[in-house]
Amino acid sequence: MTSKIFRLLCTWLVLFSSQVFSKVVVFPVTGLNLTTYPDNVSQGLVSFLPDASETTPVYYQLSSFRVNGSDVDKSKLKLKNYYTNGFSSLDRYRAILSGKEKSNSVTTMFEFKPTWYDVPGVYSGLLTANINANERINSYKLEPLPEVPIQVIVSPKTSLSLNPAQFSIATSSFNTPVIREVALSFASNKPRWSLYISAENLNNSTDRQVANDRVYVRIKDSLNPKPWVSLARPAEILSGQATPPSDIATLEFMVNSKRLDKAGNYLGRIKFFVANK
Amino acid sequence: MNIKKIKTLLVLLFISIISNTHSAIDTDMQEVASLNVNAVVAPYTTVSVSTNELSFSVLGTPGAYISTDVVTLTVDSNQSTWSAFAQASSLVHNDFGVADLPAERLSFAINDSKQFLPLKNNVLFLQGVIDQEPEPVKLSFRLTTTWQDTPGIYKGKVTIAFLNNP
What we know:
The complex is a heterodimer of chains A (277) and B (166). Chain A has 277 residues and is mostly beta strands. Chain A has two domains: 21-154, Immunoglobulins (Immunoglobulin-like, Sandwich); 158-276, Immunoglobulin-like. Helices cover 9% and strands 50% of the residues of chain A. Chain A is built from two helices and 20 strands. Chain A has helices at residues 2-21, 133-138, and strands at residues 24-27, 32-36, 42-50, 58-67, 70-71, 77-80, 88-89, 94-97, 106-112, 121-129, 148-154, 158-163, 166-170, 180-199, 202-203, 209-210, 215-219, 229-230, 235-255, 264-276. In chain A, the strands form four sheets. In chain A, strands 2, 4, 5, 8, 10 and 11 form a six-stranded mixed β-sheet that branches. In chain A, strands 12, 14, 17, 18, 19 and 20 form a six-stranded antiparallel β-sheet that branches. In chain B, the strands form three sheets. In chain B, strands 2, 3, 4, 7, 8 and 10 form a six-stranded antiparallel β-sheet that branches. The longest helix of chain B has 26 residues, at 2-27. Chain B is α+β, with helices and mostly antiparallel strands and 166 residues long. Chain A binds chain B through residues 158-162, 165-171, 182, 194, 196, 199, 202, 210, 215, 234, 253, 255, 257, 259-276, and chain B through 25-26, 28-44, 76, 78-80, 130-133.
């Protein structure tokens, strides 16, 4: 928390000093802040306002881009303005100002679209100009250009779609099980995950119950059928790494019958949980 | 003694680690989907009888004769409460024109009861509920004859009916 405040303070001081001494001012002064999640395009605007005497073209690129202490591919952050041909990656210098703006601001749009393989977290970076401060001062007699902090928050996301989303199943015995299949399509940007299943007790309209320990699941394997697993408590059925939406398994369900179960419909839910490993 | 204590401590430590691991997983779980399930318990009813034939050996003077066979009836159902009824038809003589033995001359008793119930109309003799293991019921039948009855062979039918009360 303290380091964050300190960092913001430093950023503000740098930008404030830039506004005072440089010929280019950046809005917002906090730089670019985006929040996004996998497969979602997040965009933000930053304006660069040169003063009338700024006649040198200005280029910026990402000098650093990191998350959780690891470098991130800088080409993932893109920008678009009057001088780019559509969105261009910031792993190389891109024109921000032409030097002919005559005090008119140039608005630049930034874009970040994380994939499912991009870990969730805070991505921090810094946009720096092509001419460093010393060179601007010594060679061109110009004030240093401001650095633009970048912060992109990639939220954790996990999605699971079930096909079908509901089913009706007759109770049966293990010898002649009545089976219902459900296909799972799963996606997660968590580096490691486990998928758990549990079942509620199934109730009929007169408060009679099929207890959840009689609801069973297994991963479909026609050649080598697996043993049934009771859903009385959460059961881990799958685990893996970050993955885009993909068909990960087909589950088979059965509900064990008891001779004394009253005839009728018993309703309930089977729940799916994801846990980080 | 000391080794035993150390073993106990190690076991407790192991259990503690296991339970901590479980709670860590539990608190980190996030529900991502749910599946609505309708489990259908199909209705069933089974009625079994030990024999489908009754005979009375009426060899003496007129009176009450108990059947030589005891019918064992077992009813099993998962449909709410249920009831079993019995009814008899008149017993018809083999020769045409001989008077029937009316149905009310037949009666029956349940298990070891000495009280015989006439079989004239549908007689409710057994009721059951679900959540109850089926228990066999023994039915004894009695035929009353009189001096007016013509000798010979009489045939008839005892019908046992089953009714679900939803």
